[in-house]
Amino acid sequence: MSAGVHPGMSPGANPGMNPVERVFRSAGVTGWLHAVDIDGGREVGLRADEPVVLASVFKVPLLLELHRQAERGLLDLTERVGVPAADRTGGGTGLAAMLDDATLSLRDLAYLMMAVSDNTAADVLLARVGREAVNTLLDGLGLTATRVVQDCREMLTSLWVDAGVADQSAVTQACTDPEVVARLRALDPAWGNRSTPREMTRLLAAIWRDEAAGPASCAAIRRLMALQVWPHRLASGFPFDEVAVSGKTGTLPTLRNEVGVVEYPDGGRYAVAVFTRSLSTAQNQPRADAAIGAAARMAIDQLSTHI
Amino acid sequence: MDLVRHLGYFLVVTEELHFGNAAARLGMAQPPLSQRIRRLEEELGVRLFERSSRRVALTEAGRLLVPEAREIVARVERMRDLMSDLARGDAAVVRAGVPADLGAAVLAALIAGFRDRRPDVRLSLTEMGTAAQVAALLEGRLDVGLLRHPVAANGLAYGPVLVRHPGVLLAEDDELTAWAAVHLGDLAGRDLVLFPRDAEPGLYDDTLTSCRRGGFVPTEIICTDRVEFSLGLVLSGTAVAFGAPAEVPGVVWRPLAGAPLAWRCSPAWRAEPGPYVRDFTTVAVEVLKQSAGMVDEGVPPAPRVTPRPATGFLA
């Protein structure tokens, strides 16, 4: 079997099924997807207007508002901020895993938030720019189904409260129990940070077209999204040197997301938003992660043949 | 002096490296042959041979003269042949080499197009790979060829460079047919059927370099210049092939995403185009564009590697 992505087709199985749907099914997930040709406007969708839980994907509109406030002189991206060791939001990466007091500039906190989904960095930045400011920005862009109503700490706290465990350290274990997963408020789009696949691709397209903010700000945001380290989701669908993949993941129990932009050497640029929920509660599901890339490639393949 | 005739004597001596044998081959005695070579040396103002009692060897000047002399003699012969054809009332001929995979429709269009343009000239086509065409052009056995780049040959001149981007031919039950466009990297693990390296040394190497760059190292490479054989291997699922769409049931063609392969070709002739070569070139360029999906070469995109943190060096 070759490396790379496979269309996920089993001969004879539901030949009439939407190929994107088929990719999700074969990975054991329910998927929501929207893909759009940023310059041509052609689009592909699957439940593209249904509300979805953003999880860490909310860091994209937060990053945009950070840059917009810098453009207006409300803050200085090079301002250094102290992040004490005693006040860290949970998470397996970045400042949450570091043991000592740190001081970073706002823009370097933004880098950690985007590159490794650093929750502490995100909460410091959200506290600085304000949730209302983020939602006002989203209103201005016409993205009214997208809301940022909580920070990472609130999301994580809800997990252990709903799971009925004493603290963060017990959450991972508890959330492999389907009964626990069934009562998590964090998985309800109506409760927390939310959007739709279509609104996410509109946001990305606006960033890639320099319309969401000034060109320098949009370029800075694109730079950070290209620096994300994860290879297992969106990027896994495009294991090709000449294709650039930028993105932001989001993860909660049974929930795996990534939104991003895929750029081809012929100049084709495609914004893709993929949101999934798995039936299995296992935390490690490489097939579910890879299905995000495979579905995105399937959708982009339908938009263009890149010739 | 008759310079061309003296060059002919010179060439025979260079082939024999023995005045006696050369004279015998020319049907003359040795002294007049030696005298004629000396006269040629006087005319050119250089010594062409080192002579000793035991052996004859070319000097540096002699070595340099050999290819020049060959060309002059061959061209004069060809000129004489051409004139005598005309004198006898024979139709004029342009001898052209074409690649093996040109296809019946393109070949027919080429012949018809040339007939329309020059009904008075007969087009004599020979199927040949680039390596054979280069040799035939340099030796004067062909007037014009259609060469595939990259090709390195001194003494040839080229017409416009045309390019086409081959896609990939797959068996219809190959899972990759689910894609509208296939990446080279998707082909990893498959065998490849390709034209023989002997026939197309430049393009063969160029194609495999692009494949390696794109993440496709064929498990096995099966070489053939027979289109039917190649399609048979594709049809059976044994290998994939690069090329234009084939109207064969069971074989599916897909474009390669990003057009990573660029197959270039151009008409070529020896430094001075022979008669009717320009007519052939004009017709060939037109036909290749109309019937073979080729386009004028644009600026080839530089291959790029987009950096990703997860696959960066030392990551």
Brief characterization of the structure:
Chain A is of the alpha+beta class and 307 residues long.
Q: Could you characterize the architecture of this molecule?
A:
The complex is a heterodimer of chains A (307) and B (315). By secondary structure, chain A is α+β, with helices and mostly antiparallel strands. Chain A has one domain: Beta-lactamase, CATH 3.40.710.10. Chain A contains eleven helices and nine strands. In chain A, the strands form three sheets. A five-stranded antiparallel sheet of chain A has the order 2-1-9-8-7, with helices on both faces. Chain A has a two-stranded antiparallel sheet with strand order 3-6. In chain A, a hairpin with a 5-residue loop joins strand 8 (255-263) and strand 9. Chain A is globular and about 55 Å long. The model of chain B has no long low-confidence stretch (mean pLDDT 90). In chain B, helix 1 (3-16) crosses helix 2 (19-26), helix 1 (3-16) packs across helix 3 and helix 5 (104-117) packs across helix 9 (277-291). Helices cover 40% and strands 19% of the residues of chain B. Chain B is elongated, with a radius of gyration of 26 Å. In chain B, strands 3, 4, 5, 6, 7, 13 and 14 form a seven-stranded mixed sheet that branches. With 315 residues, chain B is α/β, with parallel strands linked by helices. The termini of chain B are far apart. Chain B has three domains: 3-86, Winged helix-like DNA-binding domain superfamily/Winged helix DNA-binding domain (Arc Repressor Mutant, subunit A, Orthogonal Bundle), CATH 1.10.10; 91-155 and 268-296, D-Maltodextrin-Binding Protein, domain 2; 166-261, 3-Layer(aba) Sandwich (D-Maltodextrin-Binding Protein, domain 2). The A-B interface holds A 1-7, 9, 11, 19, 115, 226-231, 235, 239-245, 263-266, 301-302, 304-307 and B 165, 173, 175-176, 178-181, 183-190, 213-215, 255, 257-260, 301, 303-311. Chain B: One of its GO terms (cellular component) is protein-DNA complex. Chain B: Residues 1-59 form the HTH lysR-type domain. Chain B: It holds the Pfam family HTH_1. Chain B: Belongs to the LysR transcriptional regulatory family. Chain B: GO terms for molecular function: DNA binding; DNA-binding transcription factor activity. Chain A: This is Serine hydrolase.
